[in-house]
Amino acid sequence: MELALALGLIAFKVALLIAALLLLPLPLTWLERKIAGRIQQRMGPMRVGWHGLLQPLADGIKLLTKEDHIPAEADRFLFKLAPILALAPPFVVFAAVPFGESISVMGTEISLYVANLNVALLFILAVIGIEVYGVVFGGWAANSKYALLGSLRTCAQMISYEIPMGFAVIGVVMLAQSMSLVDIVRAQADMWNIVYQPVGFFVFFVAGLAEAQRIPFDLAEAEGDLGAGFHTEYSGIRFIFFMVSEYVIMVLVSVLAVILFFGGWNGVLIPLPPLLWFFMKVAFFIYLFMWFRFTFPRYRYDQLMAIGWKVLLPLSLANIIITGILFV
Amino acid sequence: MARALEKSGNWIGWAFFADFGTALSLTFGYMFSRPVTMQYPDKEKWLPYSRYRGHHFLTRDEKGEIKCVACELCAKICPCDCIEVVPYEDATGARHPKVFEIDTARCLFCGLCEDACPADAIALGQQYEFSSYASRDLVIGRDELMRKPGKAETGGGVVGARLDTRDAVRVETDEPAGYDWWRNIRRS
Amino acid sequence: MTEMEFLPILFMIAGIVLVAVATLFVSSLLRPSNPYPAKNMPYECGMDPAGEAAGGLFRVQFFVLAILFVVFDVEAMFLFPWAMVLKEIGIVGYIEMFVFILLLLVGFAYAWLKGALEWEL
Description:
Chain C: Belongs to the complex I subunit 3 family. Chain C: The chain crosses the membrane at residues 6-30, 62-85, 91-113. Chain C: Its main location: membrane. The structure holds three protein chains of three kinds. Chain A is mainly alpha-helical. Chain A is 66% helix and 2% strand. Chain A has a two-stranded antiparallel ribbon. In chain A, strand 1 (102-105) and strand 2 form a beta hairpin. The longest helix of chain A is centred in the C-terminal third of the chain and has 27 residues, at 301-327. Chain B has five helices and nine strands. By secondary structure, chain B is of the alpha+beta class. Chain B folds into two domains: 36-52 and 152-183, no CATH class; 54-149, Alpha-Beta Plaits (2-Layer Sandwich). Chain C has a domain at 59-121. The longest helix of chain C is centred in the first third of the chain and has 29 residues, at 2-30. Chains A and C meet through helix 1, helix 4, helix 5, helix 6 and helix 7 of A and helix 1, helix 2, helix 3 and helix 4 of C.
């Protein structure tokens, strides 16, 4: 009986998380277009619903009913597999992300995470690496030159920035002496990690921008010069999968930045509910992503590689060595 | 010394991404500036200046008769051959057009017909909304041309408007003079 | 209890794959299907595509990069457990890892000086 209850609770949490993450891109695309509009002195979507609030829904329905186009010379199996491979990892990763300690509902304590893994950080970095397969398969299987070029560039970019990202969080692991995200947040109860690890945060954030393929590192899409990068040949519902995955990764990087460096659900000064603190911080980071997008131009590809390998990698290694010597 | 200070200041700024900060603060400022979007056709509409060359109209004299003398000079000068005039003589022997058709699908709104007209009978007004689903609807006849609104004295502003799609797509407005829309544009 | 810890992950994978397949199914009921040869050609800005795109012809730099990635990713794998127990193993463990990082840095410097990280456009 107890086991069934526990399983039911897990299934319920998983269903809730998937629903929330699937629906999240709707308000986020609206917000992004609104912010883009305001920054460029426009208004953004205005016509569908109040201030264009229903615009993402209209777009979604449109894409859902679009013809699914598969190029004649494509590898059909990989072409169909790639969107699911791109969609799944960011969702699976969220199973290991805690949103708070626990809340009590009707006398029972319910933890605000699906799974508290003791290797959560490693798990996240490993699973998010699978995302690359979706990109590579998608670009290669389409048998189109734009898609192939885009996928190669994206792949090289993602694996290049995965290394500084992994190194940047090692300082945090040292301070918390744990890879569990819950423990890492608990360790920041007195002082946020950003105070001890400013360089680590900088490297993590820049690498996160690149991993999420946001401007100034959105070479994957590069609307101007590669068509649309690796998903040039995708249409309709499979295109939605790539887009949703991109937005979920953006949210993931924001959440990780908050958990690892900004104290998670620990508040300062104002006593607010921990969950509210957490979401406020995440919202700030999401806004930062969008703000960056409409402020900066795109880097050139060789500059992108130079930043990853010649700046971030030495910087993150130096950060590990210095943090280590101070810590021992 | 001052130069060295300035130089080191530049380096410190470089290390802390000072120019990134400048860019971000600029865009943040723009985020709270007034949008310059004109919400046409839902809420606002642009009234052109009176020098604007829009839809043609035929004028009348004091007695309400058509001014046009059907000399066909406008048809001759028209660079795209879109005016067709068929004259007739009335009881007093004055020439008037029996048929006066302008194919607005071909017209390029150069205004040469207005310049050529010896009787000041044809002119280009400020109306610019006359799109259609069929190109034959764009051939405008004599009577309709006489009904078209003439030139307004005012113009160059934005007025409130609303979109009417009940029987045809129309943008309605009832305000004669608009506000100066250019004040929305931020200059910095 | 390790199995119980990873059970939710399995639930999550099953859930998201299920949702993806269900969405594809719903979409397949709604969408039109009208393929013809011109539509099925790869997009190349209106030109007829020439040659095979997925023939395996790409720049060798991508390959070099992949090798470098493997080296440093393995290093990251070693660093994680080391960082967790650094307090207990103390200065000896630190020096050991320092030597390890140094050895890798020599390789990295070699690759840098050889120009493996240069991208001429």
